[in-house]
Amino acid sequence: MIRISRRAFLASLAAALPAAALVRRAHAASVDELGASQRSMRALGEVILPQELGAAGITKAVNEFERWIAGYREGAELLHGYGTSTLKWAGPTPATAWAAQLNFLDKKAQRAHGRAFADLSIEARRALVQSDLDAINADGIPPLGRAPHVALAILAHYYSSSEANDLCYMAHIGRQNCRPLAAQTRKPLPLAQAHA
Amino acid sequence: MSWRLGTRPQVIESDVCIIGSGITAAMVADRLARTTNGKIVVVEAGDEAPPLGARYPLRERYLQYGESPWPHDHLEGYEIHGPLQSRSMQVGGLALHWGGVTPRWSPEDFKTRSLFGVGTDWPISYDDLDPFYQEAEILMGVSGEQGPVEMDPRGKPFPMAPYPLTYNLEQLQEWVKHAGIATWSQPTAKNSRPYGGRSECCRNDTCEPMCPIGAKYSPDFTWNKLRAANRVTLYPRTLVRKLVLDERTKKIVSAEAMQAKRSGGKSPTAIEFRAKTFVVAAGYVWSSHLLLLSANSRAPDGLANSSGMVGKYLAGHRAQSAFISLPLRLYPGMNGQHSLLSKQFMRSPATDRYLRHDLRVWESSYDRGPRLRNDSGTLMLGDDILRDWRERTKTGVARVRAYYDVVPDRSSELTLDATRRNSYGDPLPSLAFRDAPESAALRGYSESTIQALFARMARAGGGSVLPARGNGGDWQDHPSGGCRMGDDQATSVVDSWGRTHDHENLFVVGAPTCVSGSCANGTLSFCALALRAATEMAR
Ligand SMILES: Cc1cc2nc3c(=O)[nH]c(=O)nc-3n(C[C@H](O)[C@H](O)[C@H](O)COP(=O)(O)OP(=O)(O)OC[C@H]3O[C@@H](n4cnc5c(N)ncnc54)[C@H](O)[C@@H]3O)c2cc1C
Ligand code: SF4
Which helix (H) or strand (E) holds B439? Predict the structure, then answer.
């Protein structure tokens, strides 16, 4: 009987699968991993997102971020640039690094406090996040797909939303939503009034 | 004939064969369909665009992930040397992506040599073009505000009421007025009311790159209409590789093309298009490129090129922009692609040296986005970010931009690049934009004068110009030229109607026929030129 090593078996399996399918699986595995850390992710959201959103608002923002990452497509054709013939494609899934960073936050929490990240006080969580962001010299909220840290990714996702824009201006602007054209001549209604 | 031995192309006969299906091709086809009974065939290298009904989800992927809402809208392997405006090659051309900004050029653009001693006069005037501007505005549906007549002359009113100013633009208009500058609502090919069977704009602000509801005009609407009425037959995925000259006369007899199968399909099939009239409507790059590729023993430098001018005098305008911080409460996101326009500096030179430019003003969120660190570098998280953001957005930012006229040099050119070839082995084009000496000498002066204007505008509003990285660079926008028009056969490729001097049944239309690139968005002018050419084709 021919004996085949586990590594050779996996390699032959990989060769039999189209590369795109493998890439999709790796992405799906990372998304699952992030999904499994939902508690940590929500706990992270509580530290970095505005408290003004309330518990429900923070959960919603984190869920929407999760949906975003689940929908990410590696290798998708991106909008091509203006004034150049160079084409661009979406890079490898950022989910892998983000899932690892979330795990790392948990490990650091265990090491420093003997508890999971999600079980720490806001202040303790904040200190751990801050040390991660200082370590990578984070100096701004980057474009979402290129966020070097999961905390920055959640921030980038939330702050690029129309809801965040409205909350900042306390006005019902509704950026990039369908709105009556004639209404654009008027000052946007204050948020409270618009929601009433 | 250059067909490989043993391969028999399919032959398609027509009265008019239009090469390209962009906006200028759509204008020509529309006019010919209205004014003639001839059979019209349109040949397009790229594939069909996604139908209107499929655009909302595509737009959503674009907004969420930056994905192209027009996937596969390009030919593989067309990475060329030089600044290509866009890779898009698709049924509808670049105007699927366009912002729909449609200013007319000004009367001075057509006679810069006689008026200012620079550049070359066109063989036509603004008045010659006025009715065709109007026709283009009607066909695509332009919403526009009449500017002060001395700055914004036009024969008839716009077909649609002005596109309303946003609250933000109203504030900005007041500010610019203090600087002594008249502005008005930018004319735009977006519906300020339901028009042409398409909806009113709902200002969801992704016109560039995709309008999901069809409120912005794009050429696919014209093709849908003409195809439904059986007035044109359109061949997608069909690249014309060569125009063929009759053996005895100077007429073009056919266009040799290859039609690719849908993705994953078998090898391409050869098609020979025979027609009485050929119209090259392939934009500023591919029109000259095709003429050069069509060289033969009797036209060794390419078709229509006895003057040696095919591919020469590529034109455009360069930009200067700035962001101006103002003590105004603005609400960015109301409709960020709409702007104010001024033609004040376009009609007469801004100074005694030749400098003409347009001016546009937009709302902006530049320098007013949420931050991670405050001014002292302290990390902010949670409520701090929102609090800081709110504080910083109590005042607003305007984006201002001027396109200024650049006089093209003869060496501003498209050439065949023997080092890069497409899958059929045809050389790809190489592009280089170069200023005429008089323009090159004025570049520093032009740009500092415009920046000084921005600084003056900022002061008039009690604001300041914000530091910004990079400005304009070398890119010349709304590129055109390559087959410039003229009365003199020795210095031009086509006459004022777009008919090539060398071949009576060969026309080139739109952008390539421009003598110069003015200092405002060019597509409406390309369309007006194309419609004017179509009147001659129909004669
Ligand atoms: C993002 C973006 C925004 C823009 N916004 C504006 C704006 O707001 N205002 C404005 O004035 N302009 C704007 N423009 C520019 C405008 O879109 C172009 O000027 C205009 O669409 C050009 O039309 P055209 O018919 O000359 O050429 P194209 O649109 O390039 O059409 C030419 C067609 O010919 C086909 N073709 C080429 N060679 C061959 C061949 N050999 N055989 C068969 N088919 C061939 C191509 O595939 C292409 O589809 C914008 C452009 C872009 C990319
Ligand atoms: S603002 Fe929205 S609806 Fe209006 S033309 Fe642009 S994309 Fe279409």
Answer: helix B437-460
Measure B427 CA to ligand 1 centroid, in angstroms.
21
Check whether residue A68 and residue A137 sit in a common domain.
yes
With H, G, I as helix, E, B as strand and everything else as coil, classify residue A28: helix
Look at residue A1 and tell me if it is in a domain.
no
**Which residues in chain B have Cβ-Cβ distances shorter than 8 Å to A164?**
370
Which candidate from B80, B335, B372 shows the least CB-CB separation from A184?
B335
Domains of chain A: total: 2
Nearest by CB to residue A51, choosing from B66, B372, B382, is: B382
Residue A11 lies in a domain: no
Q: Does A153 lie in the same domain as A174?
A: no
Residue nearest to ligand 1 atom 5, measured at CA: B98
User: Which of B143, B170, B328, B385 to substitute to test the interface with A, most A CBs within 10 Å?
Assistant: B385
The pairing of beta strand B40-43 with beta strand B10-19: parallel
Both structure tokens of A163: 């809801």
- Residue B406 tokens read as 């650049």
The residue range of the domain holding A195 is 170-196
Tell me which residue of B340, B385, B389 sits closest to B365, measured CA to CA: B389
Residue nearest atom 50 in ligand 1 by C-alpha distance: B98
Residue A174 and residue A152 share a domain? no
pLDDT along chain A (196 residues), means of 10: 45 53 80 89 98 97 97 96 94 96 97 98 98 97 96 98 98 97 97 56
| Other beta carbons less than 10 A from residue B469's beta carbon | 4
Residue A8 lies in a domain: no
Same domain, yes or no, for A62 and A152? yes
**C-alpha B285 to ligand 1 mean position (Å):** 9
Which residues contact ligand 2 via a Cβ below 6 A?
Answer: B 190, 201-207, 211, 213, 215-216
Identify the structural domains of chain B with CATH numbers, from first to last.
Answer: 10-538 (3.50.50.60)
Query: Closest residue (by CA) to atom 8 of ligand 2?
Result: B211
Predicted confidence (pLDDT) per residue in B304-353, tens digit: 999 999 999 999 999 999 999 999 999 999 999 999 999 999 987 767 79
Tokens coding B535: 């009147």
User: Quick one: which of B442, B433, B473, B456 has its CA closest to B355?
Assistant: B442
Cα separation, A164 vs A49, in Å, equals: 10
CA distances from A79 to A92, A162, B25, B70, B533 (A): 17, 21, 24, 8, 33
Structure tokens at A68: 């975003």
| Pick from B310, B292, B303: nearest CA to B504 | B303
Query: Does A176 lie in the same domain as A109?
Result: no
Q: Which residues fall within 8 angstroms of residue A6, CB to CB, at 6 or more apart?
A: none
B389 contacts A47? CB cut-off 8 A: no
Q: Are residues A61 and A130 in the same domain?
A: yes
Predicted TM-score (pTM) of the model is: 0.95
